[in-house]
Amino acid sequence: MSFLRRLSTARLLAVLGGAAAVAAGTAAIAIAATSGGTPPPREPLAVAVHRALAAPAPAGVTARIRFTDHLVDAGGLPGGGPLLSGATGRLWASADGRFRLELQADQGDVQLLGDGRTLTLYDAHARTAYTVALPAGRADAGAHRALPSVATIERALTRLARGANVSGAEPTTVAGRPAYAVRIGPRGHAGLLGGARLAWDAATGTPLSVGVCAAGRSDPVLELTATDVSFGPVDASVFDVQPPAGTRTVDLTPQLRRLAAATAHAKGHRATPVAGLARVRRAAGFAVSAPAALAGLPRTGVRLAPGASVVAAYGRGPGGLLVLERPAAAGDRAGDALDALPAVSVGGATGHELATPLGTVLTFERGGVAYTVLGSVPPATAERAARGL
């Protein structure tokens, strides 16, 4: 994760916020038109979902949007831009999968562009474009899937309800359109995650709003919603956005692939993973901590990930913790990128902490080892875990 450490704090958080915005934007590419305003009739959730999946896709969409971001306090991060503070903007999408999402702010606009092969985040204030190559074949992976029946959807919802609280299809209106809304929240110990909510057009099935909520808060922490939209073909020139000369380009593809590989290791997606504390300690090449429990949570697994990193899991489900340990490379200190974040004392070492309503990330170095503690937990829990390493 050294590439993240070389970014300024505001740019680092903007990239993370951009990822959230991309996820929301791709979920809400096709948004409903502005006519109407009466909630639709009440239907069972499985029926409403079936009709949404069966509805024909629009030829294209032009929309006004509102992006809400209460994930971090942008006040102490000058230059954070609309990805941190929230903003209004515009969205265009075509039937062939291209989209452009523009967030507008006084300190500079942010553009999110995708063509099915590459995703680009352009930050005008930083004069930087971040690019990610998408996995081949993902754009049309579901193009030829058969439409599931209502009974199939009912069975899927029943399975989902075993581990999550799922509301019904609530009739409502969004952007002046009749819509259905559903909220999904985790069961049991879910940490700080309250759930997600989605609203879609009752006639066309196209998403109108998507948001993520924190526990104990009714308003979304992150939300992308349509405010004014229309259907129709979108001119190809809308997607031809070229950053001005002098723009720095950062390709995040290699780093994200390594992160995905590390995640696969943590989940055991290998035939012969190096797992178990004794085996990991023999193979790691550095002094691995991984105590039996942290912050009252038992250790539930430990694996060796690519790059001689160790991933230890504590607890289960969304309320658990992950601890990443790796050798601290010279000149790869977290402070360069995280000095603007609050400093915390961790057993004589100085750590830096990013606390959000959805979770906490804490990094520090001690004895030649770099530690990262993260989870959907309050700062006090993450700090207690860090001090136990």
General description of the model:
The protein has 389 residues and is an alpha+beta fold. Helix content is 22%, strand content 36%. The protein contains nine helices and 21 strands. Strands 1, 2, 3, 4, 5, 6, 7, 8, 9, 10, 11, 12 and 13 form a 13-stranded mixed sheet that branches. An eight-stranded antiparallel sheet has the order 14-15-16-17-21-20-19-18. Strand 2 and strand 3 form a beta hairpin. Helix 3 (45-54) crosses helix 5 (150-161). It starts with a helix and ends with a helix.
CATH architecture of the largest domain: Clam
CATH superfamily of the largest domain: Lipoprotein localisation LolA/LolB/LppX
Structural class: alpha+beta
The biggest sheet, with number of strands, parallel, antiparallel or mixed sense and barrel status, is: 13 strands, mixed
Mean pLDDT level:
80
Q: How many DSSP helices?
A: 9
Helix fraction? Answer: 10-25%
The N- and C-terminal alpha carbons lie at a distance of 20 Å
Order of helices and strands: HHHEHEEEEEHEEEEEEEHHEEEEHEEEEH
- Described by the principal axes of the CA atoms, the overall outline is globular
CATH fold-level name of the largest domain: outer membrane lipoprotein receptor (LolB), chain A
The tally of structural domains comes to 2
CATH class of the largest domain: Mainly Beta
Radius of gyration, in angstroms, nearest whole number = 22 Å
Strand content: 35-45%
- What is the number of strand segments? 21
Unreliable parts: 1-35, 138-142, 333-337
